[in-house]
Structure formats: structure tokens, C-alpha cells
Amino acid sequence: IEVSRIRNFSIVAHVDHGKSTLADRLLELTGTIKPGTEHAQVLDQLQVERERGITVKAVTASLNYTYNNEKYLLNLIDTPGHVDFANEVVRSVTACQGVIMLVDANEGVQAQTVAVHSLAKRNNLTIIPTLNKVDLPRADPDKVKAQLNSVFKIDPKSVLSISAKKGWGIQELLEAVICRIPQPSVDSKGYFKAHIIDTWHDKYRGILCLAYIQSGKVQVGQAVKWRSDSKPHVVKFLALLRPNEEPIDEAIAGQVVMVGCGPRGGGSVGDQLLDKELAQNEDAVTVSPVKHMVYAGIFPADQSQHPTLNDSIKKLALNDYAVAVTPDSSPALGQGWRIGFLGLLHLEVFTQRLLQEYKAEAILTAPSVPYKVKLKGAKAIKQYKGEEIIVTNPVHLPDANNIEEYYEPFVIGTIITPVEYIGAVTSLCIDRRGTPLPASAVDDRMTMLQYVLPLSEVVIDFHDTLKSITSGFASFDYQDHGFHPSSLVRMDILINGMLVDELSTIVHTSRLEYNARRLTEKLKEMIPRQMVQVAIQAVVNGKVFARETLKAYRKDVTAKLYGGDVTRRKKLLKQQAEGKKKMRSVANIRIPRDTFIDVLKR
Ligand code: GTP
């Protein structure tokens, strides 16, 4: 194979616009899989993806295709559609020269179409605008072409129309991939240098990597090293992914291949694998750092499972480089970890994978966004004067007296909605403390609204609420907009007078009373009745803002006594009261695990 016959591309689209279905068709047409496996969605390999019907992990497949009697190697990198996984999209574009931008010919341009388009533009990728689902009776290709023209200035003549489901137009699409997307611009003659775009763990072979070869070539048995350390390694495994492994002996610059250096071979995303002769100081490709938007604690269901869970989290984190893992401990839950995620869906998918792939059961605490505080120069903490710290766990928020300024993370949210819902969407955004930016028309029916919103108001359930108030017609995506000054306090939850660390939250002062009431009421509903009375309080700086009482089961210990013996009766009641006190003093209240995650949902 020559580099002029290699094309590296991915499919980007709004969620459900048909990426996985198209990937299946491409694999069929190139003979990689047998036709007729309609719901196979071969690239959605993980169980969680099948269950949720979303693509989580970017997977690559090398396809052979003959065009004008020339053999081409097309490397497809499948990418996930959800906002939470935007970093996987970013990562895969580092190896691509072009993208197929799929737009549902029925739904038209959506918020994520805007996001993936700007991502492709920023990375100078060739965009092949493609309308999908043209088989649907309500598809309106001309309308959507006009939208593409008004929003992105795309020439309607350059737009392809396909049906991934029926297999229409797939050949033309592959030819467009060959003719419109440039060959990889790489140095075929130089020393071997490859950029790692994915890693995963294999039971027998250790860490395996997906690598994009930027220069030179690589062979099995070749001596290599990682940019991150200078220890020598040898390439042990080399394969094309189709998407099943096909072992090869050699790969050249421009290819995307699987590489493994054996059990102690190392490797991580963003690192580079180099020829052992290559100087260490050449400029590295940098993958932009991941922004963690949501943090939560994860604890083993039982402390004896700590080592197993630790092992599983490590392995999963290797495959999901977007998570940040630090050890954590909690009085109620023991030793665990504080984990940073890209969003709530990412958090849910991570824990589901932990359960399904590693059979590890974990307790999750309430999620929170990271906050920033600027410290005062109070006597005790003089050395910190003016210093800014990021608080990822509400429990670690310094005392209010020592804080000069609070900041919370904001995002720019893009919403594309039918015009009849503009009123409802506007009230939602204002209610979530949003500030409007100028709106623009997508066409005569659809409008694009943009708001600067606090991330904390977005991560929990903004998307679900937006969908429900617009009958599912509005779409949403967000981009980071940095930290803004804010008026914040920490609200603690006391259960029978005991602080439950895991339930502390940082809230905006305008939301304080509302949140205090909501949280206590919800806890009252969620905590099962106990043998003792349970007092639930929301407290800020020692002041109680809301209180709920969960009545005890009444156990009538005197029922068996027939009136009469007053002293005996008193004694029994006293014993029972002491029993309650004992229970209370150890605060032995059973809180269901789901409470920690569910209680913060609206
Ligand atoms: P994510 O991975 O979650 O982002 O979704 P996706 O973009 O990969 O979408 P997927 O391929 O799962 O398709 C979403 C739905 O649209 C599925 O029910 C498909 O069967 C359907 N679909 C995909 N392509 C077509 C098409 O050309 N025509 C019709 N009628 N339906 C299609």
C-alpha cells in the first residue's frame, strides 16, 4: 500500500442521525462483514452501547475498496455522538483528514451538527456533507440543504444524499471519501513516529494501542520507546482492525494500526511511540487536555472488595482516558475514589461498564461540578493569600471566612428549536440562570438560541427537561466558557445531627431555600422508615434552612401488658427509649445507595 491510497476519516453527526448504521453499510460494501446483519451495529462493541443504543467508545475499522482499478485502504474511525463524549470525537479527528458529516434529512441541522461542524473546521478537515435517511417519507433534502447553506455556507451541490438503512448512495459516498479527502500528510522516509489515539487492556497481551503513524514505518520486532519514558521496548503485536484483528508484519506512515509491546509495554493516549534512535525532544502532538465537568465519589459496596474494584477502575480508566481518578475516603463509605467525568451520561456509562465488564459493584455519591475559590489572606492561611484553588468535592470547600471570591464554571449552550417553543426554552434558560446571546434563524421554522449558563444548572437534567418541554424537537450542545464569579455557599445535610459528607452540595445563594426544601423532602421520601425517628436537616454555616422528620415504625412494647403494672410499663418504655438513643448515637440509619445519585436530580 502507498500513502496516496490511504484515506483516514470519521463520521460525525448529531445523536441518532445514523453513524453506526452507516458504518455497518460501509463494512458490508467493502466486504468486511456479511450483508444482511441489519441490526448488527458492529462497531458498537460494548454491551452498554447496545443496551443504551449510543456509541460510547470510538472504534476504528480498516476497509479495502477498489476504485478506478486502484486499491485503497480506507480507515474509518467511528465516533460517539453525545456531548459527554466530545473528547472521543476530538481524539479521533487527530488521525483524520476528513469527516462525513451526517445530517438526518428529516430532522435537519441540530445543535450537535453545529458543534461537530466547528470542530471539523477548527481542525482543517475536509467535510463531506451528507443527508441520511432520505428513504423516510417525511425527508425533505432540499429544506435541509438550504439549512446547511444558511448555517454553514455549504454549497447545496456538494451535499450527498444517502439512506444508510436501505444502502442507497453508499458507493457514491465512498468515492467522495476517496476523491475529496486528501491523503494523510506524513513523512514516509523519516524515523518511525506514531501518535496514540486509543488504548485498551488485553488479558494476555497487556496494553494494546491504536496508533496513527505520522512518519516512517514499523515492523514486528522493531526496537521502540515511548516519548514519556526512555525505556526500550519491542513491537510484539501489529494488526489492522477490520474491526477484528488481522495481524500484519509492517505498517507505513499514514496508517492507523493496532500496536502492542507486550505485558510491560506501556502506552497511553496522547503519548507517542518512537523509533528508539529518535531524539526525545522533537515536538509532540498534543491532545487538548480533558475538562472534567462532573465529579463523584465511587466506593466499594463492601470494603473487602476494595482491591478488586481498584483493579477494575484502573483497567477501565486506561480504556477511558477521559476519567480522572484520585483516592478518596468517606466516614460513611470507607476508602474509595473521587472521579472526574465529562458529564452525567459519562458517569453512568462508566459505572455501568464497571459492573458489566468487570463485575464490580460500586456506590456512587451525588455528582457535583468543580468550583474555584480565591482565598483571603486570613492569619492562619496567610501563605495562601490570593491563591485560587479548584474544589471538586463540596466537603473540601474552605471555610466561608477564608474565601474572598467564589467562581463557578459556565458554558455556552446552543439550542436549536422549532420557533413555537422559543418561549418555553427561553423561560427554561432564564430559570437556569442563563444569559442570552444573539439568536439566529436556521430556516423559517427553526431557530438557534445561545445562552451563557452555569454548568451546574446544565449537567443534571437540562437536556431531559429541554426535550420534554419541546416534545423532543429541540437539540442541545454546550461548550466550555470558563469560570465566572458567583455567589455560592456550601449546604450540608445532617441526619439525626450527623453530617453526611456525601450529601453536601455547593449551591448558588438564590437557590438556597429551594434546594434546602427540595433535598430534605426528597430524602424523606427516599430513606426507608427506620426503627428510630430520623431528622433530616439542611444546614448552611450552622443555620438550619429546612427540616423534615421521618417517623419511626411504632413498636408497641407495652401492648402485651394488661394495664395494671405502671412501674413495669414505665421501665419497658424507658428501655425502648434507650434503644432508640443507642441507635441514634451511632446514627445507624440505612440510606439506600441510589439516594446519593438520585437525590440531586430535579
Ligand atoms: P449514536 O451512536 O447514538 O450517536 O447514534 P447513531 O448516529 O450511530 O445512530 P444509529 O446508526 O444508531 O441510528 C439511529 C436510528 O436511525 C436507528 O434506529 C437506525 O435504524 C435509524 N436509521 C439510520 N439510518 C437510517 C436511514 O437511512 N433510514 C431510516 N429510515 N432510518 C435510519
From TrEMBL:
A single GO BP annotation from the record? positive regulation of translation
The protein's location, in the record's own words, is: Mitochondrion inner membrane
- List the Pfam families hit by this protein, alphabetically: EF-G_D2, EFG_C, GTP_EFTU, LepA_C
Q: How does it sit in the membrane?
A: Peripheral membrane protein
Tr-type G domain ranges (all copies): 4-185
Per the record, GO CC terms? mitochondrial inner membrane; mitochondrial matrix
Record's Gene3D superfamilies?
A: 3.30.70.240, Elongation factor 4, C-terminal domain, Elongation Factor G (Translational Gtpase), domain 3, P-loop containing nucleotide triphosphate hydrolases, Translation factors
Report a single Gene Ontology molecular function: GTP binding
The record, for InterPro entries, names: EF-4 (IPR006297), EF-G-like_DII (IPR053905), EFG_III/V (IPR035647), EFG_V-like (IPR000640), LepA_C_sf (IPR038363), LepA_CTD (IPR013842), LepA_IV (IPR035654), P-loop_NTPase (IPR027417)
Q: What EC number(s) does the entry state?
A: 3.6.5.n1
| NCBIfam families on file | lepA, small_GTP
Q: Please describe what this protein does.
A: Promotes mitochondrial protein synthesis. May act as a fidelity factor of the translation reaction, by catalyzing a one-codon backward translocation of tRNAs on improperly translocated ribosomes. Binds to mitochondrial ribosomes in a GTP-dependent manner.
**Family from the record:** Belongs to the GTP-binding elongation factor family. LepA subfamily.
This one is known as Translation factor GUF1 homolog, mitochondrial
- Origin species, per record, is Arctia plantaginis
Biological classification of the source: Eukaryota, Metazoa, Ecdysozoa, Arthropoda, Hexapoda
